[in-house]
Amino acid sequence: MSTSSNQEQNNYRPSVNLDHIQTRDEAEEAIEELRQALRFHNYKYYIEDDPVASDTEYDEWMNQLQELESRYPELLTPDSPSQQVGGEPQEELGLAEHPIPMLSLQSISEEEEARHFDKTCRKELGVDKLAYSCEPKYDGLAIELIYNGGSLDQAITRGDGETGEEVTENVKTIKEVPLRLIQHGDIPIPERLVVRGEIYMRKDRFEELNRRQAESDLKTFANPRNAAAGSIRQLDPKIAASRPLQIFFYHVALADGIEFTNQTEALLSLPAWGLKINEDLNRKCNNIDEVIDQYNHLVDIRDELPYEIDGMVCKVDNISHQEQLGYRTNNPRWAVAYKFPARQSTSTIREIKVQVGRTGRLTPIAILDPVNIGGVEVRRASLHNQSEIDQKDIRIGDRVVVERAGDVIPYVVKAITEERGGSEKTFKLPDSCPVCGSEVIMSEDKKQTHCTNKNCPAQLREGVKHFVSINGMDIEGLGAKRVENLLDLELLERVSDLFYLKREEWMRLEDVAEKSADNILAELEVAKKQPLKRFLFAIGIPHVGQHLSRVLAEHFETIDDLEQAREEELRQIHEIGPEVARSVCLFFKNDQNLQDIERMRKAGLTLENPHYSEQPQPLAGLRFVFTGSLENWSRNEIQEIVEKYGGRTTSSVSGQTDYLVAGPGAGSKLDQANELGVTVLDEDEFIQLMEEKGVAV
Ligand code: IVH
Q1: Where are the domains of the chain?
Q2: Fewer CB within 10 Å, N- or C-terminus of the chain?
Q3: What DSSP string describes 625-683?
């Protein structure tokens, strides 16, 4: 097995010149060189999140490898990095047996049940205290991977626990899944390794995917879990390859010749073979109180996570204890799924109102009898569009299932038709706009209904709310109520007017006296320097959400550059599809939009990427990793600060890390940092370091 401790020092850059390769032997040697390099860079990119090669270099080596493999097809192996792009479609998904049954977990949801679980385990084992490995319970697709001799042989879904579907070709297209394991630490790669994990899709990628699917008239998915499962359980690997799938590993079912003492140790061995674990959120808890703290912590941060989790899995850490506790028919006695509070409940639709959004789109909103869902009172829920209402046959007066997930608007999942009394009424969106009375048009599939009046006051109102919102220009002093007030007073005709209003004008708003007016003015001043990515999101280009705003800002330095980009140029950008490219171009062809942007520029908005390099760079050359929860900043904010002053942030600890900043709840990264002798700072010490370096935080 090739070990990579020498690769770590080596800066792994192959020097292959295709023109000089004449013989099969030379080809074989070059192929091996390219494969090793690509595996190494995959590891740096996907596991360490610390790439040391550019995309262009990587692509060039991959092209060279593919070229050589097509010249010498007999040299192609199934674990070559070139095989990660998706091969030929299969006839059907075969079945395969799990070497060890894939069991499910017993579910609990109350603290009392968690304490009971702990008590029963301790009693059975005759110990006073038990440590647990606590891990997020991912809401994705469970998968088992079998590596023989270090190469990925099989990927099998859970199925009935004994037998599952063989989806190897699809799973091989997931970039975070290494086709061949490489030893990065001390533990040799076992001859046979059976590992389990969860395939998932990030929430933002899921939304982009659905948008792309809708644009191309393809099936959309109800949630990220269905999207992940649908991408894996189908015949054409090219489809899986085009889907943004990721994986977290969480269980070693079998590792020939290796006896792990505990689950946390087993998990930590995985990244050292190239298998990704959740270093941020896995946590070893020393007793049940810590388990409950960690559960509450996950409940708190759940909505901020980029992917869906629906609970926490709590596993007795010590493996000989696990063996002693053993199994029931369907689940282990040594682990539980500690589920989050439900996000669904039922209520009755009293009426259906129609809301007009910032693009003029009409959305039907169900007005409900108030119902508490996961601690929040819900009175309104989205019905999305006419097609949805028709398909789900939702009527006014129906008893319905309502779901609330994070900060997205609650929505009606389905009508409970069994409870109908006969007085329920069907609903149709109106023919004219409820705000301005203009004609509305509905698309043929009944999924989109728009007001035809470009100057409809509802569009301006929603546009301004979006512009000032927290993810947009972030003007806290301007909430929805004040925006409505501004429009009622006719102080605003377009978004750019915000930057031209005088103090006296702000003071005409309800509850705005001198001090509040000054605060708003000060906030607007700060907003003028917001980076391009925020501005792009704030101006509300149709189809361009937060993620695509960032993608665009990474490609264009200033708003002018973007304005001048042609459709073809935009389409070249990864993740920008034809519909988005068209939408961006249309937006910048519209005179009203251009004038508004121009007025904002004149008002002093910078409209470009921040010029970090003009800043002093006291953190140049320093690498930071943040873990645990921080009190003063969000992860994003602190990363922006470090990068602004020349520092780098990575998501995993390596020998090159200078500082690990660890807040409460820090998990395996802290252990790794201690092992590697990396300086660990708490938040106060970090602030002190910044002060010493002259960085204002
Ligand atoms: S361990 C014997 N760990 O939950 C231990 N399962 O009922 C087996 N799941 O669908 C499972 N996150 O895919 C484990 N961190 C985690 C998990 C996890 C999600 C899923 C698993 C299965 C279900 C178990």
Answers
A1: 7-83, 106-339, 345-442, 457-602, 623-692
A2: N
A3: EEES--SS--HHHHHHHHHHTT-EE-SS--TT--EEEE-TT--HHHHHHHHHT-EEE-H
Tell me which range, 134-148, 223-237, 627-641, is most confidently predicted by mean pLDDT: 134-148
- Put simply, whether the predicted model's pTM sits higher than 0.70 gets the answer no
CATH code of the domain occupying 7-83: 1.10.287.610
How many Cβ atoms from other residues are within 10 Å of residue 139's Cβ? 17
- Best residue among 198, 232, 339 to mutate for probing ligand 1, ranked by most atoms within 8 Å of CB: 198
- List the one residue out of 206, 200, 198, 136 whose CA is nearest residue 408: 206
Classify domain 345-442 by CATH architecture: Beta Barrel (2.40)
Pick the CATH number of 457-602 from 1.10.150.20, 3.40.640.10, 3.40.50.12780, 3.30.360.10: 1.10.150.20
137 is catalytic: yes
The one catalytic residue among 44, 119, 123, 137: 137
CATH architecture of the domain with residue range 623-692: 3-Layer(aba) Sandwich (3.40)
Q: What is the pLDDT of residues 673-684, one digit of tens each?
A: 888 889 999 999
The second-level CATH assignment, the architecture, of 106-339 is 2-Layer Sandwich (3.30)
Q: Whose CA is nearest to atom 16 of ligand 1?
A: 137
**Most ligand 1 atoms within 8 A of CB, residue of 250, 276, 282, 336 to mutate:** 250
- 74-123: pLDDT as tens digits: 999 999 999 987 778 787 889 999 999 999 999 999 999 999 999 999 99
Ligand 1 atom closest to Cα of 139? 19
Q: Which of 413-422, 624-633, 642-651 has the highest mean pLDDT?
A: 413-422
As for ligand 1, residues whose beta carbon falls within 6 Å of it are 103-105, 135, 137-138, 142, 198, 250-251, 313, 332, 335, 337
